[in-house]
Amino acid sequence: MTGIKALIFDLDNTLLNFFAFKRAASKAALGAMIKNGLTVDRAKAEKVLWGLYYQYGFEYRGVFQEFLKSVGHNPNDLKLIAAAAVAYREARAHALKTYPAVRPTLRALRKRGYKLWIVTGAPGLKAWLRLASVGLLNEFERVITFDDTHESKKSGKPLEFALEQMGLKPEQVMVVGDSGSNDVAPARALGIRTAMAMYGREKPPSVRADYELKSVRDLLKICKR
């Protein structure tokens, strides 16, 4: 692609199949609570727990306490919280994966001379733990997390920070993400070209990107040198 020197990737649902891992880990946590004494209808409880993630954010640490309160149970039941936390971590280790072709696509882009960065709304340690879990620790020149700016991606501040650190102009960068509001809209406001990871979405996007990706490998057709 003419003029593009760097690609900025979102992390969750763009490189990592975040929803699949989150659902698997959350189901395991709920199963552990039921096994250890929580009486609930499992199907309804899964909807309650997933709704709380959307309400409070997928990184919210107190989600199990809020869940217990929502189903009429003591939110400070440490036995159930501990059981849920252990089951969640064990399931996460097995369920967290990259989308198909992520690693070879990243390496092919680097060979073509593109700089590869990440801008994620995840806290620093959580972002690096996810990258370590899937073997992507050394695939990126820089990883910008929430800890770097303490601003939401929607604000555009993390992307502005990345541009400053890169020393590149907006027209020399492309953002690759799954969210219209968190990735595409702020990038467009800065004059950055965008590619939407359609494979990482559960619903149609509200904002259209310059390119739509059915697979991350589609970037190799767009980014040619």
Strand content: 5-15%
Number of domains: 2
Oligomer type: single chain
What is the count of β-strands? 6
Largest sheet: 6 strands, parallel
Number of helices: 10
Order of helices and strands: EHHHHHEHEHHEHEEH
Task: Explain how this protein is built.
The mean pLDDT is 94. α1 (18-35) packs across α2 and α1 runs antiparallel to α4. 48% of the residues lie in helices and 11% in strands. A six-stranded parallel sheet has the order 3-2-1-4-5-6, with helices on both faces. It starts with 5 loop residues before the first strand and ends with a helix. The chain has ten helices and six strands. It folds into two domains: 6-17 and 97-222, HAD superfamily/HAD-like (Rossmann fold), CATH 3.40.50; 19-95, DNA polymerase, domain 1 (Orthogonal Bundle). It has 225 residues and is of the alpha/beta class.
Please give a handful of descriptors for the protein shown.
alpha/beta; DNA polymerase, domain 1; 2 domains; six-stranded parallel sheet; 10 helices; 6 strands; 48% helix; 11% strand
Short description:
The chain has 225 residues and is of the alpha/beta class. The chain is 48% helix and 11% strand.
What are the SSEs and their pairings?
Layout: E1 6-9, H1 18-35, H2 42-56, H3 63-70, H4 78-95, H5 102-111, E2 115-119, H6 124-133, E3 142-144, H7 146-149, H8 157-166, E4 173-177, H9 180-189, E5 193-197, E6 211-213, H10 219-222
Parallel strand pairs: 1-2, 1-4, 2-3, 4-5, 5-6
Helix pairs in contact: 1-2, 1-4, 2-3
